[in-house]
């Protein structure tokens, strides 16, 4: 009996240890997986699938947090010389969509995803990978595994992400079999909390423009804006030096900004200037780099030099007894700021960029429209007009496409066409002069004006995109140097940075093709030193009667070097036929070189020659 009791005690202790280990495992594990009861022989394969589902969800969350709430960023929109921003910030090679930016043609735009958008995109990401989990080892062990099409429902809460996946899954091995239709994973993640905190910071910026106001302070502290110098000689500043110092100041002072409630101690009393009155329950960082796209403009200026001339030599004011130089310069400044919101507990980071704009020394005006909220617009909640949409290519062959409807800036997802038939019959929200938007892989997006006030049908034609290899020639010889090649049409534009990028997707249409070729330059703008004489009031009693004397001073403008110059290129309007795209693999563009500029006048002349320099366009 004593031996049996001893054995029983050992088994009880082992059982307690096993139960405790299981409890500790799930207490420290960052996710909860609901495992249905299955035959013991099938559990390893099913558990492997659930862990794969968890890993895919983690990857999706990481992409969302690092890409401003997006897994697939919005379609790329290039910037321009006027506005340096595209709709994405390149941060360490990672494209992050701006939540607020200025388009290349000067329009202020927002692309803030709602929480519902994020849940939907994460669900699609999970669906696309649910059937790709690796069961190779289990197949080798005699398993039979069959899966149907997945449908994921994602719910993002402050501290967790819940994934409910509907996907019929049949598992068999030897005599054992099981059928599972619903799968659930709950992951510990601060995604919801961080998104809400990011929205609070973004909304505060939109309402108060606090980042722009800090930018104004930087401008007035580190650049000549308004002031008076007591001197009779002109004051000069080199624009390049002014902007270089301003970039350094913006980078350092932006990084010094912080919000109340950060996990590090607040600034000392004298540095509370850098503390933003916002406690969002997370650590917030503000980052700007002088290596990111910048735009600086200043007026008045003479070339690269800012000049302020003295006053005080006019008759009648000589009684003042001195000369002074007043100056007032007006700046337009544009640069990005990346905002990172970090969880106190998990260390997860959600980041999004915004574009800062100072216009005439003042902050931009806030968007009049409200920022995108966390709820679906009412328009999308009331779909009550039955509409049939038929999607075809240019040869009237049905195309499977994703259909949405856009009205007054609000876009509602409607659904996908029936596979193989290109037809969707569904209820649309009512709207006058809205747009039916059709999107399909390998085709250019189509937007058709259509009112949904009554039942009806619509045919949509999608233009196919063809991948073409671009070969650039300069003076009829193959060119492998640096160039920028743009294809610009009314509703579709693409730009290549050659030779790093040599392929492009194009559809039939009218394009303006532009090629810019830049070469090394050593144009030296000589230093300017000239003597200028002015009449100033005489000192003493004679000055009271307007008597003057001549005073001369030297104006010095430092030398400058232009390191890169336009040395080739041109533009050509060309209508690209679909037959050219479908029957060709390569697009050859031949352009002519421009005279190598040796001075600033030559460089300016090259830009005039560029406008009339035509391109030769050949499909092969």
Fraction of residues in H or I helices: 10-25%
Portion in strands: 35-45%
Total number of strands? 38
Cα separation of the termini = 94 Å
Largest sheet: 5 strands, antiparallel
Mean pLDDT: 81
What is the number of independent domains? 4
Q: Taking Cα atoms only, what radius of gyration do you get, to the nearest Å? A: 33 Å
Structural class: alpha+beta
Helix count, per DSSP?
11
Form type = globular
Uncertain runs are: 22-30, 263-270, 312-322, 368-377
Molecular structure report:
This protein folds into 4 domains: 29-74 and 115-188, no CATH class; 192-363, no CATH class; 378-462, Carboxypeptidase-like, regulatory domain (Immunoglobulin-like, Sandwich), CATH 2.60.40.1120; 466-619, no CATH class. A hairpin with a 2-residue loop joins β28 and β29. It contains 11 helices and 38 strands. α2 (43-66) packs across α3 (115-130) and α6 packs across α7. The chain is α+β, with helices and mostly antiparallel strands and 620 residues long. Strands 1, 6, 7, 8 and 9 form a 5-stranded antiparallel β-sheet that branches. Strands 14, 15, 18, 19 and 20 form a 5-stranded antiparallel β-sheet that branches. Strands 28, 29, 32, 37 and 38 form a 5-stranded mixed β-sheet that branches. Mean pLDDT is 81; it is low at 22-30, 263-270, 312-322 and 368-377.
